[in-house]
Amino acid sequence: MIALLLVSVVSSLFFYVEAFKSGMKAKVWAAAGFVIGPFLLPMFTISRHVAMRKAVGFNNLYLRA
Asked: Which end of the chain is more exposed for a tag (fewer CB within 10 A), N or C?
């Protein structure tokens, strides 16, 4: 039980920091990370990609260094 709680807290912190770095709603992703845990990672990755594409544009080239 303690391990499950620890995984939820670590996932919540991870998604909060990553959403904040990506310019997304950090509190929403932290709450979802606490409830769902590490199973949220594929949805978070897709949402981050979509948010980046909306900000940059779909027909523009974006190079990450």
From this structure: C
C-alpha gyration radius of the chain? 14
How many other C-beta atoms are found inside a 10 Å radius of the C-beta of residue 46?
10
Q: Decide: 22 and 51 in contact? Cβ < 8 Å.
A: yes
Query: Counting Cβ atoms within 10 Å, is residue 23 exposed (0-12), middle (13-18) or buried (19+)?
Result: exposed
**Contact call for residues 7 and 25 (beta carbons, < 8 A):** no
Write down the pTM of the prediction: 0.83
**DSSP letters of 29-40?**
HHHHHHHHGGGG
Q: Encode pLDDT of 47-59 as tens digits.
A: 999 998 888 887 7
Query: Which two tokens mark 28?
Result: 């929403």
Angle at 29 between CA 26 and CA 30, to 5 degrees: 80
